[in-house]
Design brief:
eight-stranded mixed beta sheet; eight-stranded parallel barrel; single chain; 23% strand; globular
């Protein structure tokens, strides 16, 4: 199969989904796939067997969830436009407003719909200001318990999304306690609560039993249905970006140029200045792997190999499912990676290829 392409491996996706299914049974929570992280709908039918639906951040995402992912469809957006709201309502089971202003603006339009409001508890686990929902002057959700309580009669649920790559149960427990203490009065008036995503509960050493017990106790205390919105927790480790070395150079370091681009194909790593992952990353040979775009900093990272790299060598960047395919772009006109799926029986099939016509169609 011609590189570059994303390879989604169902056998590596399955362990995450099985942990999600176990958590649902043990705690009573419902789990919705966060499409902002992963929206490759060719595996939605497989994922839907283990999850309860999808959640979105835009009109197009909520429509995709409605059309392609069975179960519940939750709509959320930082702000809905007038021309979007009718279709958002038509495609969703629940609509979550980011502000009291938006809730008020669309009260009449959304009459009869299950409505919720995003709440910003003022704390998060993000190590990056760019991704911190509780950063100073944050626009992500309402923060005043009294103001939220004043509109509680117009809604039946609240959404708290303040975790970010949080792999610590203790930190989750601490923040949930803060939410209980600060917003408990209004939570008691709700029917459902979403605790958002960013909780890495499918990690190898995560105390899943304690997590399930904490969620179950929270639901019982307040008499609510709890939702989680796993994104990366659902798909971590499930895909690779397959590339080929095109050329090698030496300029103080060994350089290998591949037929992909970090800016075009793994943008999140560039934004957060993090390297890609290659396994096993051992050996005597150290090489800097570079993308083929003209961006000087188009660099996947520095890795170790057993032998010198040569043109034609195949490399696999690990953990290439989350925030990759949803962020890929046509910078420099670099060919968009195809998307392939490896089935549980080991067979691999191409589900989408991109060509010049796709590039041209994205422009005008």
């Amino acid at each position: 199969m011609q590189t570059p392409f994303y390879l989604i491996d169902k056998s590596r996706l399955l362990p995450n989904l099985e942990k999600i299914a176990w958590l649902r049974d043990a705690s009573g929570v419902k789990c919705l796939l966060a499409l902002k992280c992963f929206a490759t709908w060719s595996v939605f039918d497989f994922m839907a067997e283990y999850m309860d639906g999808s959640t979105s951040s835009s009109l197009f995402e909520v429509r995709l969830g409605h059309e392609k992912f069975s179960g519940e469809t939750h709509a959320y957006s930082v702000a809905y436009a007038d021309h979007e709201i009718d279709q958002v309502l038509a495609c969703s089971d629940k609509i979550i407003f980011n502000s009291i202003g938006q809730l008020t603006k669309f009260t009449e339009k959304s009459e009869g719909q299950i409505r919720g409001l995003r709440v910003n508890p003022g704390v998060s686990t993000s190590d990056f200001d760019l991704a911190d929902p509780a950063r100073p002057f944050s626009r992500l959700g309402e923060h005043d318990p009294a103001a939220i309580d004043a509109v509680a009669h117009q809604i039946s649920g609240l959404m708290f999304h303040n975790n970010c790559e949080n792999d610590s149960f203790e930190r989750f427990d601490e923040m949930l306690t803060l939410i209980e203490d600060r917003f408990g009065t209004v939570i008691h008036k709700m029917d459902w609560i979403s605790l958002g995503g960013g909780i890495y509960f499918t990690g190898e050493d995560y105390p899943l039993e304690r997590f399930a017990a904490r969620l179950k106790a929270f639901a019982a205390r307040f008499g609510v249905q709890v939702y989680l919105e796993p994104g990366e927790a659902a798909i971590t480790g499930a895909a690779t970006l397959e590339v080929t070395v095109l050329d090698t150079m030496h300029n103080g370091k060994n350089l290998a140029i591949v037929d992909s681009s970090i800016e075009a194909h793994m943008l999140d790593l560039l934004i957060y200045r993090e390297p890609a992952k290659i396994l096993p990353n051992t050996g005597a040979e150290e090489w800097m792997i570079c993308g083929k775009s003209c961006l000087a900093g188009d660099i996947f990272g520095e890795f170790r190999f057993d032998a010198p790299l040569r043109a034609g060598d195949r490399l696999s960047f690990q953990d290439a499912a989350g925030y990759t395919m949803v962020k890929k772009n046509w910078f420099n006109g670099v060919k968009m990676p195809s998307i392939a799926i490896r089935e549980l029986d080991g067979s691999t099939r191409m589900v989408r290829d991109f060509d010049y016509n796709d590039f041209a169609a994205a422009l005008s």
